[in-house]
Amino acid sequence: xxxxxxxxxxxxxxxxxxxxxxxxxxxxxxxxxxxxxxxxxxxxxxxxxxxxxxxxxxxxxxxxxxxxxxxxxxxxxxxxxxxxxxxxxxxxxxxxxxxxxxxxxxxxxxxxxxxxxxxxxxxxxxxxxxxxxxxxxxxxxxxxxxxxxxxxxxxxxxxxxxxxxxxxxxxxxxxxxxxxxxxxxxxxxxxxxxxxxxxxxxxxxxxxxxxxxxxxxxxxxxxxxx
Amino acid sequence: xxxxxxxxxxxxxxxxxxxxxxxxxxxxxxxxxxxxxxxxxxxxxxxxxxxxxxxxxxxxxxxxxxxxxxxxxxxxxxxxxxxxx
Lengths: 226, 85
What we know:
The complex is a heterodimer of chains A (226) and B (85).
Chain A: E1 2-7, H1 14-24, E2 28-33, E3 44-47, H2 67-77, E4 82-85, H3 87-94, E5 101-103, E6 111-119, E7 135-142, E8 146-148, H4 151-159, E9 163-167, E10 178-182, E11 188-191, H5 212-221
Parallel strand pairs in A: 1-2, 1-3, 3-4, 4-11
Antiparallel strand pairs in A: 5-8, 6-7, 6-9, 9-10, 10-11
Chain B: E1 2-12, H1 19-29, E2 43-52, H2 55-68, E3 77-84
Antiparallel strand pairs in B: 1-2, 1-3
Protein backbone atom coordinates (compact mmCIF):
# COMPACT_ATOMS: atom_id res chain seq x y z
CA UNK A 1 0.00 0.00 0.00
CA UNK A 2 2.93 2.27 -0.56
CA UNK A 3 2.10 5.25 -2.75
CA UNK A 4 4.86 7.44 -4.16
CA UNK A 5 4.48 11.15 -4.85
CA UNK A 6 7.11 12.16 -7.39
CA UNK A 7 8.77 15.52 -6.83
CA UNK A 8 10.40 17.43 -9.68
CA UNK A 9 12.11 20.81 -9.43
CA UNK A 10 9.11 23.14 -9.66
CA UNK A 11 6.42 20.71 -8.47
CA UNK A 12 4.12 22.69 -6.19
CA UNK A 13 1.11 20.45 -5.58
CA UNK A 14 3.23 17.66 -4.14
CA UNK A 15 2.48 18.59 -0.53
CA UNK A 16 -1.27 18.91 -1.18
CA UNK A 17 -1.24 15.48 -2.79
CA UNK A 18 0.88 13.98 0.00
CA UNK A 19 -1.43 15.44 2.65
CA UNK A 20 -4.57 14.08 0.99
CA UNK A 21 -3.06 10.63 0.44
CA UNK A 22 -1.66 10.30 3.95
CA UNK A 23 -4.01 12.28 6.18
CA UNK A 24 -7.36 11.92 4.41
CA UNK A 25 -7.12 8.46 2.86
CA UNK A 26 -4.40 6.95 5.11
CA UNK A 27 -2.12 5.63 2.41
CA UNK A 28 1.48 4.79 3.32
CA UNK A 29 2.80 7.77 1.37
CA UNK A 30 6.33 8.68 0.45
CA UNK A 31 7.97 11.41 -1.61
CA UNK A 32 10.40 10.42 -4.37
CA UNK A 33 12.82 12.97 -5.78
CA UNK A 34 12.94 12.74 -9.58
CA UNK A 35 16.66 11.87 -9.69
CA UNK A 36 16.23 8.80 -7.49
CA UNK A 37 14.84 5.39 -8.36
CA UNK A 38 11.60 3.80 -7.19
CA UNK A 39 11.62 0.86 -4.75
CA UNK A 40 10.42 -2.53 -5.99
CA UNK A 41 7.53 -2.70 -3.50
CA UNK A 42 5.77 0.47 -4.69
CA UNK A 43 2.02 -0.02 -5.22
CA UNK A 44 1.07 3.20 -6.98
CA UNK A 45 2.72 6.40 -8.17
CA UNK A 46 1.29 9.88 -8.48
CA UNK A 47 2.87 12.73 -10.44
CA UNK A 48 1.51 15.93 -8.87
CA UNK A 49 0.85 19.32 -10.40
CA UNK A 50 3.13 22.32 -10.56
CA UNK A 51 5.58 23.91 -12.94
CA UNK A 52 8.39 21.41 -13.35
CA UNK A 53 11.44 23.24 -14.68
CA UNK A 54 9.35 26.40 -14.86
CA UNK A 55 7.46 25.05 -17.90
CA UNK A 56 10.60 25.80 -19.93
CA UNK A 57 10.54 24.54 -23.51
CA UNK A 58 7.02 23.13 -22.99
CA UNK A 59 5.11 22.14 -19.87
CA UNK A 60 6.46 18.74 -18.80
CA UNK A 61 8.99 18.45 -21.64
CA UNK A 62 12.14 18.57 -19.51
CA UNK A 63 10.80 16.53 -16.58
CA UNK A 64 9.89 13.82 -19.12
CA UNK A 65 13.65 13.11 -19.33
CA UNK A 66 14.14 12.79 -15.55
CA UNK A 67 15.76 9.50 -14.44
CA UNK A 68 12.66 8.44 -12.46
CA UNK A 69 10.56 8.38 -15.64
CA UNK A 70 12.42 5.24 -16.70
CA UNK A 71 11.30 3.51 -13.47
CA UNK A 72 7.75 4.79 -13.90
CA UNK A 73 7.73 3.35 -17.42
CA UNK A 74 8.87 -0.01 -16.04
CA UNK A 75 6.28 -0.19 -13.25
CA UNK A 76 3.54 0.96 -15.61
CA UNK A 77 4.32 -1.99 -17.87
CA UNK A 78 3.73 -4.27 -14.88
CA UNK A 79 0.24 -2.79 -14.46
CA UNK A 80 0.98 -0.73 -11.35
CA UNK A 81 -1.37 2.31 -11.16
CA UNK A 82 0.15 5.65 -12.18
CA UNK A 83 -1.77 8.94 -11.98
CA UNK A 84 -0.61 12.27 -13.39
CA UNK A 85 -2.48 15.39 -12.30
CA UNK A 86 -2.09 18.67 -14.19
CA UNK A 87 1.67 19.07 -14.71
CA UNK A 88 1.91 15.34 -13.92
CA UNK A 89 -0.42 14.69 -16.88
CA UNK A 90 1.71 16.97 -19.06
CA UNK A 91 4.82 14.99 -18.05
CA UNK A 92 3.09 11.68 -18.85
CA UNK A 93 2.16 12.80 -22.39
CA UNK A 94 5.60 14.33 -23.00
CA UNK A 95 7.27 11.10 -21.90
CA UNK A 96 5.04 9.05 -24.21
CA UNK A 97 3.33 7.14 -21.40
CA UNK A 98 0.02 8.64 -22.50
CA UNK A 99 -1.10 9.70 -25.98
CA UNK A 100 -1.72 13.27 -27.11
CA UNK A 101 -0.35 16.62 -26.11
CA UNK A 102 -1.42 19.55 -23.92
CA UNK A 103 -1.41 22.92 -25.65
CA UNK A 104 -1.98 26.47 -24.43
CA UNK A 105 -5.61 27.07 -23.52
CA UNK A 106 -7.60 28.65 -26.34
CA UNK A 107 -8.12 31.71 -24.17
CA UNK A 108 -4.30 31.97 -23.74
CA UNK A 109 -5.11 32.53 -20.07
CA UNK A 110 -4.09 30.64 -17.00
CA UNK A 111 -7.47 29.21 -15.98
CA UNK A 112 -8.13 28.78 -12.27
CA UNK A 113 -11.73 27.93 -11.48
CA UNK A 114 -14.21 25.21 -10.62
CA UNK A 115 -15.54 23.21 -13.52
CA UNK A 116 -17.34 19.88 -13.96
CA UNK A 117 -16.13 16.56 -15.28
CA UNK A 118 -18.16 13.73 -16.73
CA UNK A 119 -16.85 10.21 -16.03
CA UNK A 120 -16.40 8.21 -19.23
CA UNK A 121 -14.41 5.20 -18.08
CA UNK A 122 -14.85 3.58 -14.66
CA UNK A 123 -12.60 0.62 -15.31
CA UNK A 124 -9.31 2.25 -14.28
CA UNK A 125 -7.73 1.88 -10.82
CA UNK A 126 -8.60 5.54 -10.18
CA UNK A 127 -12.22 5.53 -11.34
CA UNK A 128 -13.68 2.15 -10.36
CA UNK A 129 -15.81 3.69 -7.60
CA UNK A 130 -17.34 6.26 -9.95
CA UNK A 131 -20.37 5.84 -12.18
CA UNK A 132 -20.36 6.31 -15.96
CA UNK A 133 -21.61 9.82 -16.82
CA UNK A 134 -21.36 10.87 -13.16
CA UNK A 135 -20.73 14.60 -12.89
CA UNK A 136 -17.84 15.74 -10.70
CA UNK A 137 -17.35 19.39 -9.71
CA UNK A 138 -13.58 19.93 -9.54
CA UNK A 139 -11.04 22.77 -9.78
CA UNK A 140 -8.73 23.34 -12.74
CA UNK A 141 -5.59 25.48 -12.57
CA UNK A 142 -3.51 25.47 -15.73
CA UNK A 143 -2.26 27.49 -18.67
CA UNK A 144 -1.55 24.56 -20.96
CA UNK A 145 -4.53 22.29 -20.54
CA UNK A 146 -5.95 22.04 -24.04
CA UNK A 147 -5.74 18.33 -24.82
CA UNK A 148 -5.06 17.64 -28.49
CA UNK A 149 -5.01 14.45 -30.54
CA UNK A 150 -5.49 14.02 -34.29
CA UNK A 151 -8.61 12.35 -35.65
CA UNK A 152 -7.06 8.90 -36.03
CA UNK A 153 -5.77 8.92 -32.46
CA UNK A 154 -9.15 10.16 -31.22
CA UNK A 155 -10.79 7.20 -32.95
CA UNK A 156 -8.38 4.77 -31.32
CA UNK A 157 -8.90 6.42 -27.89
CA UNK A 158 -12.64 5.90 -28.27
CA UNK A 159 -12.23 2.35 -29.54
CA UNK A 160 -9.96 1.38 -26.64
CA UNK A 161 -12.06 3.21 -24.01
CA UNK A 162 -9.11 5.49 -23.16
CA UNK A 163 -11.13 8.66 -22.59
CA UNK A 164 -11.53 8.72 -18.80
CA UNK A 165 -12.95 12.20 -18.14
CA UNK A 166 -14.55 14.86 -20.33
CA UNK A 167 -15.42 18.44 -19.37
CA UNK A 168 -19.17 18.97 -19.04
CA UNK A 169 -18.84 22.09 -21.19
CA UNK A 170 -16.24 23.66 -23.49
CA UNK A 171 -13.54 24.88 -21.10
CA UNK A 172 -10.31 25.39 -23.00
CA UNK A 173 -10.72 24.02 -26.54
CA UNK A 174 -9.65 20.44 -25.78
CA UNK A 175 -10.31 17.89 -28.52
CA UNK A 176 -13.72 16.33 -27.84
CA UNK A 177 -13.75 18.17 -24.44
CA UNK A 178 -11.26 15.59 -23.12
CA UNK A 179 -10.00 16.27 -19.60
CA UNK A 180 -8.35 12.94 -18.81
CA UNK A 181 -7.15 9.82 -20.62
CA UNK A 182 -5.54 6.48 -19.83
CA UNK A 183 -3.14 4.14 -21.60
CA UNK A 184 -4.44 1.05 -23.40
CA UNK A 185 -4.11 -1.08 -20.26
CA UNK A 186 -5.96 1.52 -18.20
CA UNK A 187 -3.42 1.61 -15.36
CA UNK A 188 -1.79 4.93 -16.35
CA UNK A 189 -4.24 7.83 -16.04
CA UNK A 190 -3.67 11.54 -16.63
CA UNK A 191 -6.09 14.37 -15.82
CA UNK A 192 -5.80 18.14 -15.88
CA UNK A 193 -8.16 18.97 -12.94
CA UNK A 194 -7.04 18.67 -9.33
CA UNK A 195 -8.89 15.99 -7.33
CA UNK A 196 -6.63 16.62 -4.33
CA UNK A 197 -8.14 20.10 -4.06
CA UNK A 198 -11.70 18.83 -3.85
CA UNK A 199 -11.83 16.13 -1.19
CA UNK A 200 -12.04 18.14 2.03
CA UNK A 201 -15.02 20.19 3.19
CA UNK A 202 -12.79 23.09 4.20
CA UNK A 203 -11.90 23.76 0.58
CA UNK A 204 -14.87 22.19 -1.17
CA UNK A 205 -18.07 23.97 -0.18
CA UNK A 206 -19.77 22.93 -3.41
CA UNK A 207 -20.79 19.30 -3.17
CA UNK A 208 -20.41 15.96 -1.46
CA UNK A 209 -16.87 15.57 -2.74
CA UNK A 210 -17.18 12.90 -5.46
CA UNK A 211 -13.49 13.48 -6.22
CA UNK A 212 -12.88 11.39 -3.09
CA UNK A 213 -13.94 8.40 -5.17
CA UNK A 214 -10.75 8.78 -7.24
CA UNK A 215 -8.65 8.05 -4.15
CA UNK A 216 -11.15 5.52 -2.79
CA UNK A 217 -10.93 3.72 -6.13
CA UNK A 218 -7.19 3.39 -5.61
CA UNK A 219 -7.73 2.04 -2.09
CA UNK A 220 -10.27 -0.39 -3.48
CA UNK A 221 -7.85 -1.42 -6.21
CA UNK A 222 -5.34 -2.31 -3.51
CA UNK A 223 -7.95 -4.34 -1.67
CA UNK A 224 -8.06 -1.98 1.28
CA UNK A 225 -11.30 -0.11 0.86
CA UNK A 226 -14.59 -1.93 1.19
CA UNK B 1 36.23 22.38 -37.50
CA UNK B 2 34.32 25.64 -37.64
CA UNK B 3 31.74 27.42 -35.53
CA UNK B 4 28.21 27.58 -36.94
CA UNK B 5 25.05 29.25 -35.76
CA UNK B 6 21.99 27.09 -36.20
CA UNK B 7 18.45 28.45 -35.97
CA UNK B 8 15.70 25.96 -35.20
CA UNK B 9 12.21 27.32 -35.74
CA UNK B 10 9.52 25.32 -33.96
CA UNK B 11 6.05 25.98 -35.32
CA UNK B 12 2.64 24.36 -35.37
CA UNK B 13 1.85 21.81 -38.05
CA UNK B 14 -0.91 22.87 -40.45
CA UNK B 15 -4.33 22.45 -38.88
CA UNK B 16 -3.20 23.08 -35.29
CA UNK B 17 -4.88 26.26 -34.10
CA UNK B 18 -2.67 29.15 -33.05
CA UNK B 19 -4.82 31.44 -30.90
CA UNK B 20 -1.89 33.77 -30.17
CA UNK B 21 -1.23 34.35 -33.88
CA UNK B 22 -4.95 34.86 -34.51
CA UNK B 23 -5.17 37.42 -31.70
CA UNK B 24 -2.18 39.36 -33.02
CA UNK B 25 -3.77 39.38 -36.48
CA UNK B 26 -7.37 40.18 -35.56
CA UNK B 27 -6.96 42.38 -32.53
CA UNK B 28 -3.83 44.29 -33.41
CA UNK B 29 -2.64 44.16 -37.01
CA UNK B 30 -6.05 44.29 -38.74
CA UNK B 31 -7.15 47.11 -36.44
CA UNK B 32 -4.21 49.16 -37.71
CA UNK B 33 -3.86 50.69 -41.14
CA UNK B 34 -2.76 47.58 -43.02
CA UNK B 35 -5.61 45.43 -44.33
CA UNK B 36 -3.51 43.24 -46.65
CA UNK B 37 -2.30 40.77 -44.05
CA UNK B 38 -4.24 37.51 -44.12
CA UNK B 39 -2.37 35.31 -41.67
CA UNK B 40 0.03 35.49 -38.73
CA UNK B 41 1.44 32.45 -36.96
CA UNK B 42 3.63 32.38 -33.90
CA UNK B 43 6.69 30.17 -33.48
CA UNK B 44 9.56 29.57 -31.09
CA UNK B 45 13.16 29.85 -32.24
CA UNK B 46 16.18 28.21 -30.62
CA UNK B 47 19.64 29.46 -31.61
CA UNK B 48 22.47 26.96 -31.28
CA UNK B 49 26.19 27.63 -31.51
CA UNK B 50 27.96 24.44 -32.59
CA UNK B 51 31.45 23.36 -33.60
CA UNK B 52 31.32 20.98 -36.58
CA UNK B 53 33.36 20.25 -39.67
CA UNK B 54 30.79 21.64 -42.10
CA UNK B 55 27.27 23.01 -42.46
CA UNK B 56 25.77 19.66 -43.40
CA UNK B 57 27.12 17.96 -40.30
CA UNK B 58 25.93 20.82 -38.12
CA UNK B 59 22.41 20.43 -39.49
CA UNK B 60 22.41 16.64 -39.07
CA UNK B 61 23.64 16.92 -35.48
CA UNK B 62 21.07 19.53 -34.50
CA UNK B 63 18.24 17.59 -36.16
CA UNK B 64 19.27 14.50 -34.19
CA UNK B 65 19.25 16.46 -30.91
CA UNK B 66 15.83 17.92 -31.69
CA UNK B 67 14.38 14.49 -32.44
CA UNK B 68 16.02 12.49 -29.66
CA UNK B 69 15.34 14.96 -26.86
CA UNK B 70 11.96 15.99 -28.26
CA UNK B 71 12.88 19.67 -28.34
CA UNK B 72 9.71 19.91 -30.39
CA UNK B 73 6.62 17.79 -29.96
CA UNK B 74 6.10 15.98 -33.27
CA UNK B 75 2.40 15.47 -32.50
CA UNK B 76 1.68 19.14 -33.08
CA UNK B 77 4.90 20.83 -34.19
CA UNK B 78 7.40 20.78 -37.03
CA UNK B 79 10.86 22.31 -37.23
CA UNK B 80 12.83 24.25 -39.79
CA UNK B 81 16.62 24.26 -39.44
CA UNK B 82 18.81 27.02 -40.88
CA UNK B 83 22.61 26.89 -40.58
CA UNK B 84 24.75 30.06 -40.77
CA UNK B 85 28.51 30.50 -40.86
